[in-house]
Design goal:
This protein is an alpha+beta fold. 29% of the residues lie in helices and 29% in strands. The strands form two sheets. It has a four-stranded antiparallel sheet, with no helix packed on it. A four-stranded antiparallel sheet has the order 5-4-7-8. It is rod-shaped, with a radius of gyration of 34 Å.
């Protein structure tokens, strides 16, 4: 009989302990236990918290601006310059480039003459006959031409109209 009472007390204590663990488990987040929250918990938290999501925090202006469309053109001019150029995603990529001359710079411009080149954005010196990529920090959409310009002589060597 005494053995039965002891066994009953032990089972009762174990039941209380397990019930406490299950109750604590349901009230704790997975994050508190070191796990990742379920998608259901994440949805509840985002609805309850009132915080803005990344999509909601974007400026209306950035949503109104069109994505930079790729524009390209082929070089033409008096000097022996060949190649093509593409402008997209903050980069100007010159391919199949070859030129007779040194000290040539690449400019983004709003025209095809010397004044437009000098008023434009100097991307840097062209370095030989190879594919070259130039980073553009300004808005390249404002420019209509890519100009191969020799600043020491003040001469436009070739122009590619961006289309």
């Amino acid at each position: 009989m005494r053995k039965t009472v002891m066994m009953g007390t032990a089972l009762l204590g174990l039941s209380v302990l397990l019930a406490a663990c299950v109750g604590a488990d349901e009230s704790m987040d997975d994050e508190e236990m070191g796990g990742t929250p379920s998608s259901e918990q994440m949805d509840e938290e985002s609805m309850d918290s009132g915080d803005e999501t990344d999509d909601e925090s974007m400026d209306d202006e950035s949503m109104d601006e069109p994505m930079g469309e790729a524009r390209s053109g082929a070089f033409a001019g008096d000097m022996m310059v060949a190649g093509s150029v593409a402008v997209a995603d903050g980069e100007v990529v010159v391919t199949d480039f070859s030129a007779d001359g040194e000290g040539l710079h690449l400019y983004l411009a709003e025209g095809d003459d010397q004044m437009a080149a000098e008023a434009g954005l100097d991307l840097g010196e062209l370095t030989g006959d190879a594919e070259q990529t130039f980073e553009v920090m300004d808005d390249a959409a404002d420019f209509t031409h890519v100009v191969v310009y020799e600043p020491m002589e003040g001469e436009v060597q070739a122009v590619a109209e961006l289309m």
